Q: What sequence folds into this?
């Protein structure tokens, strides 16, 4: 009897083990190196395709792209290549990319990884080196765009690691000055202020009246001067800090040294002002708690008269895009209008808001296997370069054939001709904005006619020059010590700033805060920042 | 006579309070859902109204119209329904088949098996090994990748096991006297008497599959096979007016949506089918459903 | 007793489940070693170099770690103590209703919050508890001063617990409804004949018969003891309340935004699992000691 038992047990264990082994055994070895491809459509062929040269384009809109349509064929013919789509998802593409690399399915190229991931990729030898001569030779327009937009002679130095370039940096050109301070112009008039407030004193006076003089005319004291969110250090009323020449949340340069806005003496001055504003009820006390959607609600329900936001939220949507605080606000209140400024001017005439480094992501990177396929690499460079800089290419891909699918109207705007004004026809024909053959590079200057109605162009051009300020200049640089300490330092700073502003902590303790901050690892971070900055300057 | 009437009054008051209390709870509980119903029919600046949302101010069907323009939406529904049906069938079958033997305390190595299964509820290998496994098994880009990996959950097994244990042994004994083996007992006694817990597990598994999206995102590449939640997320990111990249793409078709109302519409499209199906499962949670079964 | 041959049938029934767990749970489990390695994407999990307890040391050396751990434990326990009974009570109260339509209606409504994501619920609650929201308006009616609950360390945890209960009580009550519906109605009939009122019937029949379900739900809920609700907290918190509301998962998430460090998050996950295991064992023993040997897990 007992033996029977032992046998049964062995049998069970064996069969489980066997099945497990069998299932794991089969297939384990078959990890393919083949590059991932897919869509329902078969890759089309072009008569002049070079044998074996197939390029991949990302397709995040599988239902809006036609691999055999006009745009793709245009590229096939222009560059003598065949095309396949790489299915990408707009969310979680980072996880997906990691999984694909982990399973040996490295795509030809990818884009938009934050810099900390870029460094990891380089360290783990997953990315291909891009020889700089090739970039200069085969992507000259791209390089020029980099140089012109950043004002740097050597724009690649931010992505160079150990003397080599592993990425084509992507620039978000609006980043350097997109944030502005908006104030309700109609409220200013209502409370009797004719001149646009410029200095801190003038802004404070305006905010005081916003709070106390019932600018929305509803008989209730339910309006605040200014509101905001506390999502990041650079979001906490940065314009007030800018008035004192400091930029919280950003490493900036001052007299050759790297400084961090939140621990500069100017920050103390700004906090004193903000604390005074808070005590006088000029600041919406819920700024601590507000998320983006709460902020929108407040502004649209006219609960505050000023805020810091991208300039395009204050202009009509036809001028660029969004226009939330213009279009939607005026639906309820047609008299609402905004005046934009870079921020209040401090005692030394300084003004500005912490902005975003245009090198906002690491851009396009190529999989390691591309190092041994230089012809293909060159082809990609050419296609990306052409797509991002060539107006004719863009017009062809977005709008198709002039006279057949689109025409240029008298006011210069582009219109689709029926039946191509129906998106389905566009998709069938194979045109539209859903193709990513430009990598991800957006030359906003080039695309102006597509994005802005001609009549609104002056508004756009005026609004996009208002913003001022500095941004984090070592954002793209690899900083391991920073990565280790940043979370706790930021948390510490945020809590202290909020306490200073609401008066929970006396401003006299500011110096203690700085000392604590340094002890928490801050001085190591500053040391590293200075060192990296010096290296950056030296590598010219 | 007098006694009974006094009792009645007290009972009446308690019952009234009872209903009142529950109605209050219902009203409060339905509010978040109601805000989404209202928002899904709202448009323009009214979308940002603060305060209680009780009815749409600018009634509009634009959100729904936009969603229905996406052909993918329908394939999303179809794929998800398929996933739910397959997943629930698979789960119910194997979860109960696993729970039943474990419900017999006399089963040899019962504690070992239970420990073996329980351990998986706490410890796991993480995303990368699971991903590699699914790929190596050739399940990639098929519904099986979505339905097999999570099919038997330790939690569900243990819940079912304990429910099975509460069924009186006497019933099984009498069946065995009639010569029934374990298969017959399982099918004719255990399962019919466990309908409530089976319905509960079916509901849990069904909802899990209905709402799942991450696995579909990493395991399915053919867009025709994508599940509903992925399509919904697609629609939202496509029309996200505050995302510059999305706006660059939609340059021509500048959307007038703010995001909130569209999000609410998507929620409606996601929840309503479930609400429609739910009443069919609800009958299993009625008190006394076992009335007939036990007597029989 | 039982013919040994019969058990073969049972083992056969068990086999597919065992294979499933073996393949889909135990095979990938080698990934756990990531917690002890320095993960290199291209070398894979097995090929990456060993790092010993480095990641654990790093986690414990973090000045915020113990604060975050404390928050996690406290919030979890509050949610357990206050939240665990609510679905049970709700099921009990609703079962007493005789009007079938009303009962089904209320039951269905009670699930709805479960399906609304925290992204939206958080917005609603932030509005609700805002300075001009209904809660503060009511407080002012009674002569009090408005409080910004969402930014107040004294109240934030309570808000978390209450809103979490609100979201989950309906969905969590399903299992108890299922259990109640399995009770033989004859027992109630007998009790009525004996003169037992509603309350007595609940106390002496329903609740004792629910003890098995309650026990196992309690024990199994220990598996998530260090979870504390990432989705909810992430959407509702702000830096002002980090000291009381920052939990392990939200902290690790923020750290992870800066560097993709699989090993670190695996190590933290492993720590959470280990604690969960200990808690399950403890609660299981407690249940057995309280006389519920059959209700326990093993």
A:
């Amino acid at each position: 009897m007992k033996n029977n038992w032992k046998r049964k047990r062995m049998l069970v264990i064996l069969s489980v083990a066997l099945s497990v082994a069998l299932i794991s055994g089969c297939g384990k070895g078959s990890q393919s190196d083949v590059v991932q491809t897919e869509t329902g459509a078969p890759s089309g062929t072009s008569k002049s395709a070079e044998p074996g040269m197939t390029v991949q384009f990302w397709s995040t809109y599988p239902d809006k792209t036609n691999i055999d349509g006009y745009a793709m064929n245009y590229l096939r013919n222009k560059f003598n290549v065949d095309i396949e789509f790489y299915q990408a998802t707009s969310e979680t593409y980072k996880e997906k990319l990691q999984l694909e690399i982990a399973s040996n399915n490295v795509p030809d190229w990818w884009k938009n990884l934050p810099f900390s991931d870029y460094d990891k990729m380089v360290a783990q030898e997953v990315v291909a080196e891009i020889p700089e001569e090739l970039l200069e030779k085969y992507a000259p327009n791209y390089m020029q765009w980099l140089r012109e937009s950043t004002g740097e002679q050597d724009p690649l130095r931010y992505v160079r690691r150990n003397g080599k370039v592993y990425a084509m940096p992507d620039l978000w050109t609006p980043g350097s000055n997109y944030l502005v301070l908006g104030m309700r112009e109609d409220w200013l008039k209502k409370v009797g202020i004719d001149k646009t407030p410029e200095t801190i004193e003038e802004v404070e006076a305006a905010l005081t009246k916003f709070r106390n003089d019932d600018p929305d005319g509803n008989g209730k004291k339910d309006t605040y001067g200014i509101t905001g969110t506390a999502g990041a250090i650079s979001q906490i009323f940065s314009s007030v800090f800018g008035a004192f020449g400091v930029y919280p949340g950003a490493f900036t340069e001052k007299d050759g040294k790297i400084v961090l806005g939140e621990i500069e003496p100017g920050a103390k001055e700004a906090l004193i002002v903000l604390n005074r504003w808070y005590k006088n009820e000029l600041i919406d006390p819920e700024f601590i708690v507000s998320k983006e959607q709460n902020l929108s609600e407040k502004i649209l329900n006219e609960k505050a008269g000023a805020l810091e936001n991208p300039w395009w939220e204050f202009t009509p949507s036809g001028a660029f895009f969004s226009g939330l605080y213009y279009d939607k606000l005026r639906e309820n209140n047609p008299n609402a209008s905004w005046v934009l400024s870079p921020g209040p001017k401090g005692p030394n005439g300084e003004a500005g808001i912490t902005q975003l480094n245009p090198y906002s992501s690491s851009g396009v990177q190529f999989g390691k296997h591309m190092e041994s396929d230089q012809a293909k690499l060159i082809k990609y460079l050419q296609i990306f370069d052409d797509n991002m800089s060539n107006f004719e290419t863009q017009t062809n891909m977005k709008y198709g054939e002039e006279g057949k699918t689109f025409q240029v109207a008298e006011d210069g705007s582009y219109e689709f001709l029926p039946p191509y004004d129906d998106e389905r026809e566009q998709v069938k024909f194979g045109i539209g904005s859903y193709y990513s053959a430009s990598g991800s590079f957006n030359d906003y200057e080039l695309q102006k006619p597509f994005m802005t109605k001609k009549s609104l162009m002056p508004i756009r051009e005026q609004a996009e020059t208002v913003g001022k300020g500095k941004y984090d200049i070592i954002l793209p640089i690899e900083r391991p010590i920073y990565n280790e300490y940043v979370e706790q330092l930021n948390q510490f700073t945020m809590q202290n700033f909020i306490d200073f502003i609401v008066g929970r902590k006396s401003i006299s303790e500011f110096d203690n805060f700085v000392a604590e901050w340094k002890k928490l690892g801050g001085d190591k971070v500053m040391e590293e920042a200075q060192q990296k900055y010096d290296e950056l300057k030296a590598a010219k | 006579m007098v006694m009974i009437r006094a009792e009645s009054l007290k009972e009446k008051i308690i019952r009234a309070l009872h209903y009142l209390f529950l109605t209050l709870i219902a009203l409060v509980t339905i509010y978040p859902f109601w805000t989404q119903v209202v928002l899904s029919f709202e448009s323009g600046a009214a979308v940002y109204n603060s305060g209680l949302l009780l009815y749409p101010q600018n009634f509009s069907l634009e959100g729904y119209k936009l969603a229905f323009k996406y052909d993918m939406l329908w394939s999303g529904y179809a794929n998800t329904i398929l996933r739910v049906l397959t997943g629930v069938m698979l789960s119910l079958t194997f979860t109960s088949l696993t729970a039943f033997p474990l419900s017999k305390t006399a089963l040899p190595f019962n504690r070992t098996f239970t420990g073996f299964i329980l351990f998986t509820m706490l410890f796991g290998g993480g995303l990368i090994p699971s991903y590699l496994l699914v790929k190596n098994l050739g399940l990639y880009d098929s519904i099986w990748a979505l339905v097999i990996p999570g099919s038997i959950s330790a939690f569900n097994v243990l819940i079912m096991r304990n429910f099975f244990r509460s069924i009186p042994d006497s019933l099984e004994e009498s069946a065995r006297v009639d010569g029934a083996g374990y298969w017959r007992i399982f099918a004719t006694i255990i399962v019919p008497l466990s309908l409530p817990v089976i319905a509960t597990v079916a509901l849990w598994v069904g909802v899990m599959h209905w709402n799942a999206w991450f696995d579909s995102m990493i395991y399915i590449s053919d867009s025709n096979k994508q599940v509903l939640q992925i399509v919904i997320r697609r629609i939202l990111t496509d029309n996200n007016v505050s995302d510059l990249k999305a706006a660059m793409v939609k340059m021509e078709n500048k959307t007038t949506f703010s995001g909130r109302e569209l999000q609410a519409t998507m929620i409606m499209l996601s929840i309503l089918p479930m609400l429609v199906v739910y009443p069919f499962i609800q009958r299993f949670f009625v008190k006394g459903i076992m009335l007939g079964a036990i007597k029989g | 007793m039982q013919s040994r041959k019969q058990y073969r049938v049972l083992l056969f029934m068990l086999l597919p489940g065992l294979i499933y767990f073996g393949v889909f749970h135990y095979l990938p489990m080698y990934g756990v070693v990531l917690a002890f390695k320095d993960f290199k994407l291209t070398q894979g999990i097995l090929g990456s170099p060993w790092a010993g307890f480095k990641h654990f040391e790093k986690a414990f050396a973090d000045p915020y770690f113990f604060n975050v751990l404390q928050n996690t434990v406290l919030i979890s326990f509050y949610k357990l103590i206050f939240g665990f009974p609510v679905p049970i009570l709700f099921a009990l109260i609703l079962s007493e209703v005789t009007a079938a339509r009303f009962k089904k209606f209320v039951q269905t409504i009670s699930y709805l919050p479960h399906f609304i994501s925290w992204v939206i619920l958080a917005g609603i609650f932030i509005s609700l508890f805002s300075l001009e929201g209904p809660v503060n308006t009511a407080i002012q009616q009674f002569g009090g001063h408005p409080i910004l609950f969402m930014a107040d360390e004294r109240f934030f945890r309570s808000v978390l617990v209450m809103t979490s209960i609100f979201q989950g009580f309906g969905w969590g009550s399903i299992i108890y409804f299922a259990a109640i519906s399995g009770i033989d109605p004859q027992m109630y009939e007998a009790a009525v004949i004996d003169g037992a009122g509603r309350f007595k019937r609940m106390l002496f029949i329903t609740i004792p018969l629910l003890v098995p379900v309650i026990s196992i739900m309690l024990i199994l809920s220990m598996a998530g003891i260090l979870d504390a609700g990432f989705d909810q907290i992430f959407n509702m918190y702000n830096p002002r309340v980090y000291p009381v509301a920052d939990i392990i998962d939200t902290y690790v998430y923020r750290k992870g935004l800066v560097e993709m460090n699989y090993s670190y998050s695996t190590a933290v996950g492993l720590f959470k699992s280990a604690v969960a295991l200990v808690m399950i064992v403890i609660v299981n023993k407690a249940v057995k000691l309280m006389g519920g040997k059959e209700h326990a897990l093993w």
User: Anything to note?
Assistant: Residues 1-5, 292-296 of chain B have pLDDT under 50 and may be disordered. The CA atoms of residues 58 and 139 of chain B lie 47 Å apart.
